Amino acid sequence: MKRRHIVQLAAATALAPVLVQAQSFPAKPIKLVIAFPAGGPTDVTMRVLAENASKILGQPVIIDNKPGAGGTLPAQGLQIAPPDGYTLAQIPLGVFRLPYTTKISWDPVKDIAYVLNVTGYAFGLVVPIDSPLKTWTHFVGWAKANPGLLTFGSTGTLTSPHLTMELIAQQLGLQLQHVPYRGSADLMQAILSGQLMAAADSTGFAPQVAAGKLRVLNTWGEERLAKFPDAPTLKELGLGLVQNSPFGIAAPKGTPPAVIARLHDAFKQAMEQESYTTALGRYDMVPRYMSTKNYTQFAAETFAKEKALVEKLGLAKAQ
Fold first, then answer.
1. Which tens digits make up the pLDDT trace of 32-45?
2. Is residue 224 included in any domain, yes or no?
3. Based on the number of CB atoms within 10 Å of its own CB, is 83 exposed (0-12), middle (13-18) or buried (19 or more)?
4. Within a domain: residue 264?
5. Rounded-to-integer distance, Cα 61 and Cα 88, Å
6. Are residues 48 and 97 in the same domain?
7. Which residues of the chain have pLDDT under 70?
8. Which of 26, 58, 239, 287 is 20–30 Å from 164 (CA)?
9. Residue span of the structural domain in which 85 resides
10. How far is the C-alpha of 296 from the C-alpha of 24, rounded, in Å?
11. Cα–Cα distance between 307 and 305 in angstroms, integer?
12. Number of domains in the chain
């Protein structure tokens, strides 16, 4: 009995600093690293979410933009960040493809602590308003008549817009020329300046469509988007594809569960505020909540699905 008491006391002593840390968390500003540049839909909506969370947590949540590498840089940064809850990262779907296309020393499921999912992108394909490609039928017809000459941009190699377009091209026997950019803001500049014939993107293109500068050829959700009611879905076009790309927030592996719980509760409350819903609505996005448990399960399931996608497109790295 005495020995058991000593073991219990030692365990409690070891746990005490963690409990104290969790109870006092946060004691300084929190950095939230996002995967795309300033000015795009991710940046705009996540800044509103961070501001809401700051008021709940009592400390600033500071957005740090780290674009590039197909949206995977924030997740990679978690591998060297202290597991104390003060460095968080946005996790786009591209993170779950990374081990299949690039040699890395960490596991996206086991080496990340998932906090919660917050939303998901709505996607579509746009062309300049004065483009001769007025409809999807025109797009496909021109691409077939001019193999390899139709250029489309995306927010990066191996991102969801890029891979979805590759799937479409594979289904229809098209040869398209892909041009990657660092994020929506850069992509929009490129198509508006005439560098591209089309852009596959999240609905960061909405302001340009509203301004009469771009035309939406299709959208990629289960149903048509309210903002673009005349644009057919990929399913309506007979392609049988749906892409909505959920994303959320994660922390370094080993972050204390009590700190994860504090972050989860704060960001969940931040999601429920009208300012966040309004910001998402600008891009036809909606809150898409997953708890810590469900988001962790989603990560494991998505990791398996993305392997099949990458292999189907012939993009898997050589073993």
1. 999 999 988 999 99
2. no
3. middle
4. yes
5. 10
6. yes
7. 1-22, 318-319
8. 287
9. 26-120+245-312
10. 25
11. 5
12. 2
